[in-house]
Structure formats: structure tokens, C-alpha cells
Amino acid sequence: xxxxxxxxxxxxxxxxxxxxxxxxxxxxxxxxxxxxxxxxxxxxxxxxxxxxxxxxxxxxxxxxxxxxxxxxxxxxxxxxxxxxxxxxxxxxxxxxxxxxxxxxxxxxxxxxxxxxxxxxxxxxxxxxxxxxxxxxxxxxxxxxxxxxxxxxxxxxxxxxxxxxxxxxxxxxxxxxxxxxxxxxxxxxxxxxxxxxxxxxxxxxxxxxxxxxxxxxxxxxxxxxxxxxxxxxxxxxxxxxxxxxxxxxxxxxxxxxxxxxxxxxxxxxxxxxxxxxxxxxxxxxxxxxxxxxxxxxxxxxxxxxxxxxxxxxxxxxxxxxxxxxxxxxxxxxxxxxxxxxxxxxxxxxxxxxxxxxxxxxxxxxxxxxxxxxxxxxxxxxxxxxxx
Length: 386
Fold this sequence. Notes:
By secondary structure, the protein is an alpha+beta fold. It folds into three domains: 19-54 and 321-365, Helix Hairpins (Orthogonal Bundle), CATH 1.10.287; 62-110 and 173-319, atp-gated p2x4 ion channel domain (atp-gated p2x4 ion channel fold); 121-166, no CATH class. Helices cover 25% and strands 34% of the residues. The chain has helices at residues 2-8, 26-50, 88-91, 212-215, 231-237, 242-248, 322-350, 354-361, 379-385, and strands spanning 55-58, 62-70, 73-76, 83-86, 92-93, 100-119, 146-153, 158-165, 175-177, 185-194, 199-202, 228-230, 250-261, 271-279, 283-291, 297-320. Strand 15 and strand 16 form a beta hairpin. Helix 2 packs antiparallel against helix 7 and helix 7 crosses helix 8 (354-361). The longest helix has 29 residues, at 322-350. It is elongated, with a radius of gyration of 42 Å.
């Protein structure tokens, strides 16, 4: 009967339970305690103190950015050679403040252009020629200013084109710098809203003083809530020279970072600004069209060089939460359990007395066999005997 029971229950159905063995092995004991200490330092120091693993976070804030440039500059007018005033409508593109804006620092002017036939600029490689055969009629000049007419200009050795004449020639036309641009100021008004915690923040100071924003300048210590920056200081913080950057233009990135610990005072939630140079060359062309007394259309072409400011905003708000706290504590307990498993593996497979520890840790427990019950005497049998 016993044999039948044994065969009917395969070994994988055996139940295994833990057996605790106190092992007098100092090396494994010291190693075990050091690992436990390391895990505790990691959980307390790194997870809870540094990474604040007891907090839940919101890293997708709703963002609003408004910019406004202020300043003015005076130059000699490129058409009448008189003084001309440049204000924000002239040197800031686009005129309405957004998170991307272009500050003009220099321009090349080609005034009084009119539609007609004229030689292409010698700076255009595809426009150069030695004879008419080099200028295929009706073919556009690659990176040029018009359509080829089929004739080669013998004076300039360039193809004659149909386009706005005279064409732009940087070697002949004056380059006018707007040197006062480095003293201009840029206002960056930024608001963020963390929906998860119903918290909103702003980089502007809440004050009833109407003159505060007319006189303040941003300083991380004395004026952290003044959103007004000087152009030259931003370029300097981007580790570049404004004078050099204003010649060929460039792109400056402005990063605004919000790190808000809402377990502390909300007033401690301040934006952090950083500036970086993204590119060294930046220019584009624009034109102003008008008609003369004979009702003929003209235009003034400007090639504008300047600094493009690109503003990006990111942020993260944190606050105590039961779920992340439980997850962090559970992770710590799992690590402590893994340490015990690791020490067991070393003890049972790598130690010189592994066989001894194996016999002590694992023991096969079998239930005791039941003894046959003694047969009680039958009274009828005794009567028969007599």
C-alpha cells in the first residue's frame, strides 16, 4: 500500500519550507552586513534624500511665454543718407513677442531695386560666364537673383538676368551695424501650471509698484523675479562675444527650468535660467515695396544679420505621495532579500565547506510510518476453546 502511494505522488508535488540555520562563518557574516549597510545607505541616502523617492511628480506643465524687446538705434538712411531711427518694429522679428524672436544687429541694404535686366552678382558661382553659351536662356541662376536671358555681360563676366535690379552685392554695398543693440533689454514673462497638483508659478514678482519692472534687472540673488535681461549679458552667459556674434549673426538658446518641491514653501519655487550658443551664422532677407510718381514698383532689399533667441521651458513639481513611498520601501525590502539569497549561493556553492552547509540547510522530512494496530481478542473464540 505504501509503495502505491509513493508512486502516485511525483517529487515535484513535494512541499518545500524554509529552514533557518545559524552559520558561524565570519567571512559570509561580514559580507552580509556590508551589503545590508550598502542597501540601507542607498535607500535612505539616494532614493529618499537625493531622489526624493517618497514624492510623486508632474513633469508636464502647461507653459505660457511672452517676450518684449526694448531699445532704439540711429543709423544713416540707406536711401537718402539721412539719420534713421530703428525701434522695436524694425529690429525685432516677429514684432509680437513669442518664444522665438530675431534681433537685428547688422544689415546689408540694396535700395531702389526695380524689375528689369542686369548682370548677375560675381559672387554667385552659377552666374559667371565667358560667352553667351554659358548662359542658357530661361534657366534660373542657382542661389542667384533671377532668370538667365542668354547673354553674357562682357564687363562683369556674369550672365545677364531678369530680376530685381541692381542685384545685391555685399562687396559693393555698405554694411550698417546696429551697435546699440547690445544695450537693449528683453522681457521674458513665463507662467507654468502643474495640473496634477493644481499649482501655478510665474517668473514675475507680484507687486503693486508700477515702476518696479521699469528699473529692475534680473539677478539670481537680489532680483530672481525680475524677468528683464540685458542682451549683452545673455550673450556673455552663453560664453560668446556680442561684437563677434553681431557680425554674422547666431542663435542663442534660453532654457528656463522649474524644479518645485511643493512639500516646502511655494515661494521657493523659482525658475532657473541658462544660456547656450546653438549656431554662429544667422541671416535672412526682407523687402519693402513702394511706387514712384510714375506708378512704377520699386523695392528696398535688406539682408538682416542678427541673433535669434529660442526660449524653451521645462519643469517638474514634486509632492509627498503614499504610492511612491510604498514602492521605494518595497524595492528596499526586495534588495535585502536578494542579499540573503546571494550569501546563500556563495555559502552553498563557493565555500570550501559547501557540502557541510548544504547538509545542514536542506533536510528531507518524512512522516513516521503508522504501526499496525494490535488485534483485540474475540470473546467467541474463547468460548469455542472451552
